Amino acid sequence: xxxxxxxxxxxxxxxxxxxxxxxxxxxxxxxxxxxxxxxxxxxxxxxxxxxxxxxxxxxxxxxxxxxxxxxxxxxxxxxxxxxxxxxxxxxxxxxxxxxxxxxxxxxxxxxxxxxxxxxxxxxxxxxxxxxxxxxxxxxxxxxxxxxxxxxxxxxxxxxxxxxxxxxxxxxxxxxxxxxxxxxxxxxxxxxxxxxxxxxxxxxxxxxxxxxxxxxxxxxxxxxxxxxxxxxxxxxxxxxxxxxxxxxxxxxxxxxxxxxxxxxxxxxxxxxxxxxxxxxxxxxxxxxxxxxxxxxxxxxxxxxxxxxxxxxxxxxxxxxxxxxxxxxxxxxxxxxxxxxxxxxxxxxxxxxxxxxxxxxxxxxxxxxxxxxxxxxxxxxxxxxxxxxxxxxxxxxxxxxxxxxxxxxxxxxxxxxxxxxxxxxxxxxxxxxxxxxxxxxxxxxxxxxxxxxxxxxxxxxxxxxxxxxxxxxxxxxxxxxxxxxxxxxxxxxxxxxxxxxxxxxxxxxxxxxxxxxxxxxxxxxxxxxxxxxxxxxxxxxxxxxxxxxxxxxxxxxxxxxxxxxxxxxxxxxxxxxxxxxxxxxxxxxxxxxxxxxxxxxxxxxxxxxxxxxxxxxxxxxxxxxxxxxxxxxxxxxxxxxxxxxxxxxxxxxxxxxxxxxxxxxxxxxxxxxxxxxxxxxxxxxxxxxxxxxxxxxxxxxxxxxxxxxxxx
Length: 710
What we know:
By secondary structure, this protein is mostly helical. It is 75% helix and 1% strand. Strands 1-2 form a two-stranded antiparallel ribbon. Strand 1 (401-403) and strand 2 form a beta hairpin. Helix 7 runs parallel beside helix 24 (524-537). The chain is elongated, with a radius of gyration of 33 Å. The N and C termini lie far apart (117 Å). 40% of the residues are buried.
């Protein structure tokens, strides 16, 4: 007891004398920055889970719990696995019971049980369960893809720093300060775990973090282990050799993984194309005849349910499984939010402009329904269904048919042609709005890419001048003179002007938030090189020269590997793009023409047979039975079939473009938005031309053929 009292007495005395609030060590700054970046920005998913996840308690198997916990931790979501699973179960039960309630209500109103509504609600419930259950996995995969695209720059930062200062702790801190999220946050968590006492050394915390990459990027772990081993090398040359080897290990690992991935995804992508595009489109060609033979069992809303909800979900599921297997370490690492033109990307006014442009086309596409089901034509003294009588044809423009007081249709070629404007209006809305959001940012990125391609030689020149003893503040003007006609000339001249005319320091001349040269060329590679230059100049010109020459060689290696990876993926990428923007729209357009031709033939045959006298039509065929079997009024109007096909083409372009960009460049929102705009424009134009000429040509062919019979 005496010992305890003594400890308490002096403990209280020490607490009064030591003011911990004034402590400002390096790790505390890292810890404060990490708290600022990471602490409670409660996401929508976390809010929903916290609100509904506690309603029921789900006991998970140990294996499932560990798997889900790992996904949540990877995505930095502060939730328990039980709450995430509870939300999935509640989504399933909620949608299922709502579907049962609506079905029972419908049964009491119409005295017939709506099996279709029941199965739809069941499908929606299963979809919601799958979506909410796999949502942590998708978030974790998204985080991993973003972080893995920064692996090579991260190793480059650490290696460049440790070449002149052999201190792992400071090198990791340097990388965490200059990388962008999400990998920067992961590196800061390494220090946070030390600050909170979870680990006692940087090596323990680092090894624990690296273990999270074991299933996805073993080369990243090997590279860090090589960096750690360089600390124990007795000679300087051997230490530098091991550091350079660590970067080469990461580059080789990225190449080997993408090589294997490019081979593995060809089969699944072929499956996506056949099951998601070819077979559904061919099935649509049989719908007019099938709906006639089934006597109206298949309705137009069944088509929309299957081809605009179920099949797109199936394609989305298949492509998601492909993307989950994509290895990390390669892709766009630029943080879009840092771009000075980012405000244009998040500008929502473009949607209003695009909507006003697309709305007239959408209303024109609805003209057959407006004429038939609204009093608008009567206000202007027009008929509800116009005819081609002036051209000597008996066909009606919209061709609605009334049987037993029920209106069916439209079956006319005019209505079918007008329906092309509905998918066109949807495509033009997204194409214009997405293009306006992304075109200037993508232009700035292209200029940055051009600068990156020239930057390796410019870095070598910069390193040579520094090695000659030219101060860093003067060297940029000399390199700019030797780079005339290149984009790098403007970059170096901007830095020189900031130093000479505005009196900025080297760091401010490059990275000043308003005047820095880097804001005009937003590139992760250039920013990485310049940050290493600024840091190494503090150690001396020779060290800076050596660092820049090394980076120049690394840049050349990275560019070579990127070109090899593009070559590996070129076949897959070109196949997907041709399927999405050429084969699928062309095939769908021909199918629309076939549907219109089948409808026209059956309509004319029905009119023709009704004029034939007698009960038999050759070889004992009963006319009444024939007309009943091929009754046009029970057919799905090609007007609705075309709308379903057109919307499906738009959906497929959205899904496959996002897949294509992720395969080629990793998680890249800017490129996804821009590519969707371009592919929508190409795909929908080809589809409209193919459908228009198919409808016109096959309709004329059918009229000529039936004229000979009449």
